[in-house]
Amino acid sequence: MKPSSLGDSSLPAQIWNSAAQIDRIPVINTRSLMPDGARAVVIAPHPGDEVVTCGGLLQLLSGLGHPLLLLSITDGSASHPGSRQWSEKRLSVFRPQESVEALRRLGLPMHSLKWVRGGFTDAALSEEQTQVTEFISRYLRPGDVVFSTWRGDGIDDHEAVGRASAEAAERVGATFHDVPVWAWHWPEREQVLIPWDRARKLRLDTWTVARKSHATHAYASQLNGDPAIGIAPMLPRVLLERMRLPYEIVFV
């Protein structure tokens, strides 16, 4: 399911709010995911994906003192094709600024967070997967724990970056975990495609959820589409609603 379709109020029940299996996902704590002293690497296909994917986990890891590396594969400048209001030139400047503000809202230590921008082309990562894998491999090291979008998430860029991240992690001896994003917004009937046996739930307290929600709202360009040319918000209301849940789910 494409993000633009989520603004339709007539959508059928989605996996995130209807699948009984979600309540039965085993709970895991952060220390079970991250060995003491390990570096966490979050790989975001587009700016903002790091918050949508694991904004809560980033806060938990920062609180435990883990070194953090964020890789932004694209600059997200092609999110509004054909828009005059949100032209590629404007977005190439605006979206990195949004990310800086979002990370500040998460409360991450910007002086110690390493952030690398890849500059790859939006909506073309499947064709550039080999190059993306090479780029990611340059920044990983043995013992890292890597988080990126699920290789079956239903969005081409998310899946390509998930595959590239998993391959790069395997090359260097790092651990890789998928994190589903758009898959939770598939119709309930598609829940058989979710690898429930790999799913683990990280509980988030009220303040962690609140900071995550606040950080998401730093992405003004993604909260507003361009109705004049039929572009819906990239972060529709239903996704923002799901992000207020008191947990995040990763595949181990």
Automatic annotation (TrEMBL):
- What's a Pfam family in this record? PIG-L
- Highest taxon above the source species: Bacteria
Q: Spell out the SUPFAM superfamilies in the cross-references.
A: LmbE-like
- The protein's name: LmbE-like protein
**Organism, scientific name:** Pseudomonas fluorescens
